[in-house]
Specification:
The chain has about 325 residues and is an alpha+beta fold. The chain has eight helices and 18 strands. The protein has one domain: Metallo-beta-lactamase, Chain A (4-Layer Sandwich).
Length: about 325
């Protein structure tokens, strides 16, 4: 294994690559209109084996976000030197696919098909890849073949891909999948009562179709795959654990947003439950260290693979890329 590129370098590479491909990757009305044969797969897809599990990280887009970490500005700017004058940091938006045994599992639903310069994403200056469904097709997985969708939490960039428009009517994008989400992210979500909200349209749309299952605690999903409640980012936030042939992978969702948060567990954006987030972070770090786990988090620098330092405090995040 070798050390990965820094977030600042990766964002620069992204800008150069996407400038050349902006017309091809722009979403018109459906991400699936970009054919897999037109993709440079290395830009959007990265696969590793964890035991018998084939895990693919999926890049859904890149945008800008001001995390407003609740610490003195000089401290967070030293840790995030790529932040602009407005405090915005370029971040990647990543999901994942797990193939293990008979299970074909998607982690998070990604964005909807609305062009990124409009709708919910305009302020993020979002630039899209071909989208989750098209990227799955590029690795030979059809939407109908997905058996489970594990929704780490109910923030818009993780749920907006649930319901798609086909022939002028809304349909579930993954019609045969059991969709799981932490119970509190629906039952305690005030947006469920706002018909125009992403939660109401997408999570509510799944629920009305009998496709959404509200879960608590630790939930086995398939042999070797567990959905584990890790609240703080949201009340129902959950992480995904994969174990196969003595190896472990943890997808941490939005429990962490930047590498500096592994070192500073109390660096948390506003609107989160700080005390609960710290507890969940500590538990995840202990679990990762005990297993020597390969890790990823939703907004890590694509392809997101990494590990934490095996011992010592504070913990340190280390990006990894596979040697090919």
């Amino acid at each position: 294994m070798t050390a990965g590129r820094s977030p600042d370098t990766r964002a620069t590479v992204w800008d150069r690559e996407m400038a050349a491909d902006v017309d091809r990757t722009r979403v018109a009305s459906s991400a699936t209109r970009v054919h897999s044969r037109a993709m440079d797969r290395s830009h959007f897809i990265d696969t590793r084996l964890v035991g018998d599990a084939r895990i693919t990280m999926i890049l859904d887009g890149h945008g800008y976000w001001a995390p407003e970490l609740q610490v003195p500005e000089a401290e967070w700017r030293a840790a995030l030197p790529q932040a602009n004058a407005a405090g915005e940091v370029g971040i990647d938006f990543c999901g994942a696919h797990i193939a293990l045994g008979d299970a074909s599992i998607l982690i998070d639903l990604g964005f909807d098909d609305i062009p990124p310069e409009r709708g919910h994403w305009a302020t993020m200056r979002l630039r899209r890849t071909p989208g989750v469904e098209a990227v799955l097709a590029a690795i030979g997985v059809r939407a109908e073949e997905i058996t489970h969708v594990l929704i780490t939490h109910a923030h818009g960039d993780h749920i907006a891909g649930a319901i798609a428009e086909r022939d002028g009517r809304p349909v579930a994008r993954f019609p045969n999948a059991r969709h799981l989400i932490g119970r509190a992210d629906w039952e305690r979500n005030p947006e469920r009562n706002s018909p125009a909200s992403l939660a109401a349209m997408h999570l509510g749309g799944l629920l009305s179709r009998g496709l959404l299952e509200l879960v608590d605690g630790v939930r086995p999903v398939a042999p070797g795959v567990t959905f584990r409640h890790a609240p703080g980012e949201s009340p129902g936030h959950s992480i995904v654990e994969v174990r196969s042939r003595g190896e472990t992978f943890l997808h941490l969702g939005d429990l962490f947003h930047f590498p500096c948060e592994f070192e500073h567990l109390g660096w948390i954006p506003p609107g989160r439950d700080q005390a609960t987030t710290i507890l969940s972070r500590r538990d995840a770090l202990e679990r990762a260290r005990d297993a020597g786990a390969l890790l990823a988090f939703s907004h890590g620098v694509f392809p997101c693979w990494g590990r934490v330092s095996p011992e010592g405090e504070p913990a340190h995040w280390m990006y990894e890329v596979a040697t090919r």
